[in-house]
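re: that chain from earlier
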Amino acid sequence: MVVAIMYEKLSKRVESVVKLARSIASNDDQEYLGTEHILLAIAGDGAGLGFRILKDNGVDEHKLGAEIKRLSRKSLEETWVFGSLPGSPHLKAVVATAIDVAQQLGAREVCTEHLLLAMLAEEGSVAGQALRNLGVTDNIIRSSISENAPNT
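^ sequence. v structure.
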């Protein structure tokens, strides 16, 4: 029930990113959906503010893939059900945090930039660690959100 409520607040871009992430996980023969798959999907989607933030900071699919592969070797996470693939506990927390972040920023829906902020906030997630290792910070993301906010 909580997951269904969460989905109602996700943008079409995020829904597209989740579908791409499932494909990435399946193509890599993963039996779960994790933050790392969502992050790779944001980088591979080619659109949205989250993609532009990564691109503007020199983070692309190849760099992310290499960093995530390095980090993923260190540990495997427990899983919970997220659609057709089980999702990691970190992914569940990231989605919940992204909803909170979007609300705090006055956004009507959760977008990829909110997912990036939530990934950074989630201690122990592969995606958060990869972003930090590649120099993407909370301040960088929030600055980009402010710069791209519609004028009121």
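The chain has nine helices and two strands.
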